[in-house]
Amino acid sequence: MNERRVSPWLRAYAIAAYAYIYLPILVLMIFSFNSQKLNVRWEGFTLQWYDTLFKDQAVLEATRNTLLIAAISTLAATIIGTLAALALQRYRFPGYIFAESFLYIPVIIPEVVMGIALLALFSTLRARLGLTTITLAHIAFMIPFVTLVVRARLHGFDKSIEEAAMDLGANEVVTFWRVTLPTILPGVLSGALLAFTLSLDDYVITYFTAGPGSTTLPLRVFSMVRHAVTPEVNALSTLWVLTVFVLLGIGQILQRRGTQK
Question: Total domain count for the chain?
Answer without folding.
Answer: 1
